[in-house]
């Protein structure tokens, strides 16, 4: 802009000189005025044309990603005019960390286009905005830099990371007597409850061929749920018990992801909430892959409830909720356990995940266990994340109550921590790097 003002002042001085000062060389003076006028008009129009008649297409491969995996976007800049673009800068204002989509394009020919692909390793869960974009250009002399804002935006949801839990063996909640639950399901199970007429949409593997041959019309089998009780994950979202430290996502090398020899190992932020969410997501995936029925409860600003169900859709619902969930609740975990425990059926498996060091929730979990609910406590050691009370007294109370207990500390491998129950207070835990659990 300073250069623009200088050229305008120079043009104004040349006009004053040609009109009021020059007498002998008036022709030369006006020639200089005409030349400067032509330069100013030409460069101004060039700068204006550079940021117009340009279309930017943004293609997002998927609007869902996961921590530890790649999010991919493709950009296309199209020159709609018959004049070349000397240079264009596409500036991206996305909120996704380490999403380096900005580019500088040189010499975009008439009716030409330029494409590039951006692959970003997701480091944080949440819902992030993609865009807007700002188009920047100027004239060959750099006298009139211009910007054009493209306000279109979209969103991408990053699911929390999940880890394999081959060594996690909680107590199984079986229905008494091993009888079928007498609850119809659209999933194919080992329990056939009867047959019915075929309706459009039924898969062919459900057809009961003997009945079809006998009746002369298509007959399909109906199924019931397996005699295994539901698994409920109860996540503590009380803001007063969660501890975190300042954390900035590492600025990864800007080398294209396709050229990485090995994907960088990820480490969870130093936050009890992030560890609790990752544990909840991993447990939900673990049980759903075993064809168990899983539900999720959490009291944040609002009560988050996902009814127990099975299958890939249930996993998607759980991850969608955990991607944006926050510790905004004000209800103590003991009260949440007492309230929600009343609605749990007998022989249900309850997984309680909390960093709280209040002994009240241990008593509430013990009371829930007296009603026939099989309880598992997963204690996030808040004192390893920052200034917080020690968890040893809580662990001692859990062990005295006969509740299966797991403890996860900051920097610990989650899969290793959930493969070994705590048997005594102060029992050593493996200090494997947490990042090793996320290496792909």
Describe this structure in words.
The protein folds into four domains: 2-50; 54-159, Sandwich (Immunoglobulin-like), CATH 2.60.40.10; 184-224, no CATH class; 231-438, von Willebrand factor, type A domain (Rossmann fold, 3-Layer(aba) Sandwich), CATH 3.40.50.410. Helices cover 26% and strands 26% of the residues. It is built from nine helices and 19 strands. The strands form five sheets. The chain has a six-stranded mixed β-sheet, with helices on both faces. Strand 15 and strand 16 (303-309) form a beta hairpin. The longest helix has 25 residues, at 26-50. The relative contact order is 0.11. Residues 174-181 and 428-440 have low confidence and may be disordered.
Summarize the topology:
Blueprint: H1 2-21, H2 26-50, E1 54-60, E2 64-66, E3 70-79, E4 85-92, E5 103-108, E6 113-121, E7 126-130, E8 133-137, E9 146-150, E10 154-159, E11 184-185, E12 191-197, H3 209-215, E13 219-224, E14 231-235, H4 272-289, E15 294-299, E16 303-309, H5 312-324, H6 333-341, E17 349-354, H7 360-370, E18 374-380, H8 392-400, E19 404-408, H9 414-417
Parallel strand pairs: 2-10, 14-15, 14-17, 17-18, 18-19
Antiparallel strand pairs: 1-3, 3-6, 4-5, 4-8, 7-10, 8-9, 11-13, 12-13, 15-16
Helix pairs in contact: 1-2, 4-5, 6-7
């Amino acid at each position: 802009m300073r250069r623009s003002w200088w050229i305008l002042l120079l043009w104004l001085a040349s006009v004053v000189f040609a009109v009021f000062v020059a007498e002998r060389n008036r022709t030369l003076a006006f020639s200089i005025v005409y030349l400067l006028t032509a330069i100013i008009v030409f460069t101004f129009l060039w700068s204006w044309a550079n940021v117009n008649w340009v279309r930017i297409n943004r293609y997002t491969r998927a609007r869902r990603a996961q921590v530890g995996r790649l999010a991919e976007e493709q950009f296309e800049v199209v020159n709609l005019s018959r004049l070349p673009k000397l240079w264009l800068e596409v500036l991206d204002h996305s909120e996704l960390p380490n999403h380096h989509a900005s580019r500088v394009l040189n010499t975009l020919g008439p009716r030409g286009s330029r494409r590039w692909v951006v692959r970003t390793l997701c480091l944080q869960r949440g819902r992030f905005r993609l865009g807007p974009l700002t188009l920047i250009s100027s004239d060959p002399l750099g006298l009139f830099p211009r910007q054009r804002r493209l306000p279109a935006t979209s969103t991408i949801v990053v699911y929390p990371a999940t880890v394999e839990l081959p060594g996690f063996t909680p107590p199984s909640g079986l229905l008494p007597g091993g009888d079928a639950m007498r609850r119809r399901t659209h999933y194919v199970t080992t329990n056939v409850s009867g047959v019915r007429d075929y309706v459009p949409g039924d898969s062919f593997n459900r057809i009961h061929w003997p009945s079809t041959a006998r009746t002369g019309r298509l007959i399909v089998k109906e199924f019931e749920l397996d005699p295994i009780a539901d698994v409920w994950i109860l996540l503590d979202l009380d803001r007063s018990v969660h501890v975190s430290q300042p954390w900035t996502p590492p600025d990864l090398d800007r080398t294209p992801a396709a050229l990485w020899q090995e994907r960088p190992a990820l480490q969870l932020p130093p936050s009890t909430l992030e560890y609790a969410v990752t544990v909840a997501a991993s447990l939900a995936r673990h049980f759903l892959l075993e064809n168990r029925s899983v539900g999720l409860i959490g009291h944040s600003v609002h009560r988050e409830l996902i009814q127990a169900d099975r299958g890939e859709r249930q996993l998607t619902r759980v991850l969608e909720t955990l991607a944006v969930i926050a510790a905004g609740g004000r209800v103590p975990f003991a009260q949440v356990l007492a309230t929600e425990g009343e609605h749990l059926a007998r022989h249900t498996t309850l997984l309680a995940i909390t960093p709280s060091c209040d002994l009240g929730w241990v008593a509430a979990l013990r009371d829930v266990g007296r009603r026939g609910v099989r309880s598992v406590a997963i204690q996030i050691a808040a004192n390893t994340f920052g200034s917080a009370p020690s968890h040893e007294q809580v662990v001692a109370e859990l062990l005295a109550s006969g509740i299966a207990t797991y403890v996860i500390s900051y920097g610990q491998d989650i899969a290793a921590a959930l493969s070994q129950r705590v048997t005594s207070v102060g029992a050593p835990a493996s200090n494997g790097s947490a990042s090793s659990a996320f290496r792909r």
